[in-house]
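Morning!

This is the sequence you dropped in the shared folder:
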Amino acid sequence: MDSKSLTLMVVGDVTLEKPNGKFYLSKVAPVLRTGDVVVGNGEIVFSEGIPTYVEVSSTSPGCPPENIRALASAGFHLITLGTNHVYDRGAQGIEETIAGFKKHNIMFVGAGMNIDEARKPAVIERDGTRFGFLNYNCVGPKGQWATIIKPGCAYVDIVTYYENINNPGGPPDVYTFAEKRSLSAMVDDVQKLRLLCDVLVVIFHKGIRLSPKLAMYDQEVTHAAIDAGADLVLGHHTLMKGIEWYNGKAIFHGLGLFCPVAKGSTELQTKAKQTLRNPNVSDILFAQPYPDQYPAAQLVMIAKCIIEDNKISQVGYLPCLVNEQKQPEVLKKDKKGRQALEFMEEITRGAGLNTRYEWKGDEIVTHPD
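The structure's back. Tokens below.
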């Protein structure tokens, strides 16, 4: 008798800084509830405790703890916490968030009360298939990182080098590399988890936030995860990016800002941003080179993988559009859906990636090109 197929769904940043989180997820919840394993990124901790001001200009106000109930109601089983905002409310924020997840039977990965907890994998079993998850942050201030004595996130440290030889004052060439020790730690985690699960998923908080292009380290860290044994790699933190196939495995480089319900910057943060902005830096560094005929900030996706016989048999996604009320809605194969696919094809080609897309009903499946 054939074994039952399972569905894994993964979405990008879920930010629920305003009350009534259930409203913001209501359009997409019926779809998410059909997944056997559903994963989202908890961009902001669920705590309204005292801010730490790790970085004044981007410290979040925190999400109301009662919004954890909205995640559970929408069908989420696992939330990644390895982000550049996880320590915005200090140890209290992480502790309250973890306690809230446990209360609502939601698992978490990527953060903890020390680095060992932050690097600990999450394993979910469904009908005999074991799904293993690891999560690492690659962006933001180091004050968000966990240590042996401090709460925070698991991380891969990224080193950035700027070079401008022939055009002083112009935009530099930018080189990014994963620091060897933290990269090796991630690889070691993957290799250990490989022995404990059937489907191994690594999720990174990474990437150039407002560009469809890939930084050098994007492929360095994702390829390293696959070489170490990952079956699927996904990224969040940025607007949507293209999908890559590497050694027969799929890499979602950017899932998009799935549910961006933010309160906005405080007066102090606005002043800090203005102070930090270097007037001598070329404006080209702040450009948003997405194709301007598409609403790039509103286009997001639900990564969807089918698992059969303990292996991923199909990789695809459901295109979504975030409406004016900040609610993600699943698109169909109509005019908006076709435009969303055109957008994905354009940014995939622009990043030099090797994926071909096709409709299968109202879903989009991917193939190596």
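Headline: Residues 275-288 have pLDDT under 50 and may be disordered.

More detail when I'm at my desk.
O.
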